[in-house]
């Protein structure tokens, strides 16, 4: 999107503001689908956690996407957006048996990642098809918090526990219809992906009634100019070919499933915030904006890089700034970053603000969350109103404390 359009949207809808470009989401979806065109049955399940606005879910539904969910609330959002339960997979971690049963009752595909729940669920619901999330013990992902397929990770059933898993399946007579893995986000090297895929194929060969193999996600998107990104065309060629060969050996056409979040929405997002104050200190020049890690936590949580532009002065002479928020603790978006000259009142734009940005926002410091706008067919559509003070106090139950009628005597 162009700087001028973004400035206009901030004037129309206020600041801070999240803007999502629908055309970019659509082109990313098409790119992935095209990369795997040699696979007969491909299913893309958008990972709702990345950006869960119902209008974004509806846009993806229109593209033919399914959904990957991790909570019953994400399932409910998907159903509200019009997805049929068969188009939704539920991959919880550390969730109660009650919630899993509730989701299963809705007709959603269940994906189980631990032996205890697998055994309980299989014993009670042997006819409900279940997918199994394995832990392939592969270290992949751009950050320790988002590397989830390694041996110390809490996710998935270890491949070394396969004999135990097979015993549970046999004893309960349950129906396993899918095998799943997700090794982590921001995977740099497709060879790691292909290596983990071999482990998934080996595991899958031990189950006779499979319908799909779910390779999770982890596609790396670029965060800055010339940054590495997952070569999905190359992955499509290599994994597609290997998948087809596996189906031939297996004797049945399976569905190849992915569940991308970042790949579909990260680059489509722009976070706009106004500069409240430019503060020269002895060490740097701070640009303090009308936002903080309550709205965009990734830099503080993961050390993530978000490219920052001054859309009010895009061609200005570059200077060094530390961009900080208004939160009452260290709240840094960027340290000594080259940005076109900033004046108080200018609008800054943070790139890659589509995934894990609004969805991780909070009311910390009792601040309201920003509005969200979807830029669709040349027009900005408000898809979430800015919160108000009423939203902050909505669920508070206020106690009243009576002032004592007579002062309490204090004896010494
Ligand atoms: C199980 C699972 N699937 C898919 C995703 C989406 O990953 P990404 O946003 O890197 O595509 C995640 C991310 O945390 C995940 O945990």
UniProtKB/TrEMBL annotation:
It catalyses: meso-2,6-diaminopimelate + H(+) = L-lysine + CO2. The active site is at 328 (proton donor). It comes from the Bacteria. Pyridoxal 5'-phosphate binds at residues 218, 356. Its cofactor is pyridoxal 5'-phosphate. It holds the Pfam family Orn_Arg_deC_N. Residues 18-354 form the Orn/DAP/Arg decarboxylase 2 C-terminal domain. Residues 23-266 form the Orn/DAP/Arg decarboxylase 2 N-terminal domain. Its EC number is 4.1.1.20. This is Diaminopimelate decarboxylase. It comes from Flavobacterium subsaxonicum WB 4.1-42 = DSM 21790.
């Amino acid at each position: 999107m162009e700087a001028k359009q973004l400035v206009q949207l901030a004037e129309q809808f206020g600041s801070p503001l999240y803007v999502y470009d629908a055309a970019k989401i659509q082109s990313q979806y098409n790119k992935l689908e095209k990369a795997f065109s040699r696979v007969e049955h491909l299913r893309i399940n958008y990972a709702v956690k990345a950006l869960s606005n119902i209008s974004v879910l509806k846009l993806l539904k229109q593209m033919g996407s399914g959904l990957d969910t991790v909570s019953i609330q994400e399932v409910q959002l998907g159903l509200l957006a019009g997805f049929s339960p068969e188009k939704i997979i539920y991959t919880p971690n550390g969730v109660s048996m009650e919630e899993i049963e509730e989701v299963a009752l809705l007709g959603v595909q269940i994906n189980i990642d631990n032996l205890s729940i697998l055994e309980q669920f299989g014993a009670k619901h042997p006819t409900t098809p279940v997918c199994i999330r394995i832990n392939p013990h592969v270290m992949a992902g751009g950050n320790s918090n988002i590397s989830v397929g390694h041996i110390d990770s809490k996710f998935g059933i270890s491949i070394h526990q396969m004999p135990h898993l097979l015993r549970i399946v046999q004893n309960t007579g349950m129906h396993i219809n899918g095998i799943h893995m997700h090794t982590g986000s921001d995977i740099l090297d497709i060879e790691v992906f292909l290596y983990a895929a071999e482990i998934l194929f080996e595991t899958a060969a031990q189950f006779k009634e499979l319908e799909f193999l779910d390779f999770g996600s982890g596609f790396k998107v670029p965060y800055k100019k010339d940054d590495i990104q997952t070569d999905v065309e190359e992955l499509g060629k290599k994994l597609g070919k290997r998948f087809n060969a596996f189906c031939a050996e297996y004797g049945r056409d399976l569905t190849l499933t992915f569940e991308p979040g970042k790949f579909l929405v990260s680059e489509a997002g722009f976070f706009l915030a106004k500069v409240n104050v430019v503060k020269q200190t002895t060490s740097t020049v701070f640009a303090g904006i009308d936002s903080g890690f309550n709205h965009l936590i990734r830099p503080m949580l993961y050390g993530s890089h978000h490219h920052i532009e001054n859309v009010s002065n895009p061609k200005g002479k570059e200077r060094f700034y530390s961009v900080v928020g208004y939160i009452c603790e260290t709240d840094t978006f960027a340290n000594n970053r080259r940005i076109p000259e900033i004046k108080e009142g200018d609008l800054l734009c943070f790139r890659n603000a589509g995934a894990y940005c609004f969805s991780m926002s909070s009311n910390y410091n009792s601040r309201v969350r920003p509005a969200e706008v979807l830029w669709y067919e040349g027009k900005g559509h408000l898809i979430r109103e800015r919160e108000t003070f009423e939203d902050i106090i909505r669920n508070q139950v206020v106690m009243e404390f009576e002032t004592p009628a007579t002062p309490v005597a204090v004896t010494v």
